[in-house]
Design brief:
Blueprint (H helix, E strand, L loop, with lengths): L1 H23 L21 E4 L5 E4 L14 E6 L2 H4 L10 H12 L7 E5 L7 H11 L6 E6 L24 H15 L7 H25 L2 E6 L3 H4 L7 H10 L4 E3 L1 H4 L14 H20 L2
Parallel strand pairs: 3-4, 3-5, 5-6, 6-7
Antiparallel strand pairs: 1-2
Helix pairs in contact: 3-10, 4-6, 6-8
């Protein structure tokens, strides 16, 4: 009887926390594949209500966003977690979705529909993006938007075992929380790479960007490179790879949109050092959409 009196409150607490975590949005995470070519990306055909009710839909192509009609203009957005947008941002609030709406508004009647294909993936770098494009091409899109930031050039090709994401669903919301917590805790024990290794990675990632631009040229797709500054960069911290990427783009005759001017002077754009709030996505998407409309109007 004594053990029951001790155990029962504990069971109630565990069940209560489980229910609370599910209300918040944990317990049914987006599931990912495990591939040599691109590392990992969301499995097609998933719809979730995630953090605080945000809708996350992964369509038949394995990218975030609507499936859309066959005759729509597809805008392919490539990048990392900034492009993916986080599971706390609703699909319709992502900068990819905002940009698609801006294009449709500025070029009325030009296209039957404008559909955003958000192929951004958490923790991806240029080598992951290149692997996807080599394997799957541009997913039927004539316009590619590649968003990059300084951190991307320090990344190796990321694999599924290096990130706290799931190939199979967790049994409980507790399990997802513990995986996320353990990843965060273990991050405190990681050592930075030596400077010479970081430079080798930067060179490899710049080469991957050049290869992406070449694939676009071969595919007949137009590319817009978007530079996303971090919050510290807006405050004056130097960006190491911005100029090097701009030089690569100039060699390939590819336009670059630097979002620094769009962000400057605005409040509450970031939720941390690099990721955007819903307001930040709106600002970025408006600027990207306006530039894409200019590009498409010239066709």
């Amino acid at each position: 009887m004594h053990r029951l009196r001790v155990a029962l409150p504990l069971v109630i607490v565990v069940i209560g926390v489980e229910l609370a975590l599910r209300v918040v949005g944990l317990g049914r995470p987006i599931l990912y594949d495990n591939r040599e070519s691109w590392g990992f990306r969301p499995v097609p055909d998933q719809t979730r209500r995630r953090l605080f009710g945000a809708r996350v839909h992964v369509n038949a192509l394995g990218v975030r966003g609507p499936d859309g009609p066959a005759d729509a203009l597809r805008l392919l957005f490539l990048g990392d977690s900034v492009t993916w947008g986080g599971s706390f941002v609703d699909d319709t609030d992502l900068f990819a979705a905002v940009a698609a709406r801006v294009v449709a508004e500025r070029l009325p009647g030009r296209f039957p529909a404008v559909v955003p294909l958000d192929a951004g993936v958490n923790a991806w770098g240029p080598q992951n993006v290149l692997g996807l494009l080599r394997e799957r091409g541009g997913l039927g899109s004539p316009v590619w938007v590649l968003t990059l930031l300084d951190d991307d050039f320090r990344r190796e090709k990321t694999r599924i075992g290096e990130v706290p994401y799931f190939n199979a669903p967790p049994a409980t919301a507790w399990e997802e929380l513990l995986v996320l917590g353990a990843y965060k805790l273990l991050g405190a024990y990681r050592q930075p790479k030596p400077a010479e290794d970081v430079e080798r990675l930067a060179q490899a990632n710049l080469a991957a960007c050049a290869a992406i631009l070449e694939l676009a040229r071969a595919d007949g797709a137009r590319v817009l490179l978007v530079w996303h500054p971090s919050a510290p960069a807006l405050a004056g911290e130097p960006e190491v790879y911005h100029a090097r990427l701009a030089a690569e783009a100039a060699r390939a005759d590819v336009p670059v949109l630097d979002l620094t001017a769009a962000y400057r002077g605005r409040d509450r754009l970031y939720v941390d050092a690099i990721h955007l709030s819903t307001a930040g996505h709106r600002v970025a998407g408006t600027a990207i959409g306006a530039r894409l409309a200019e590009m498409l109007a010239q066709r």
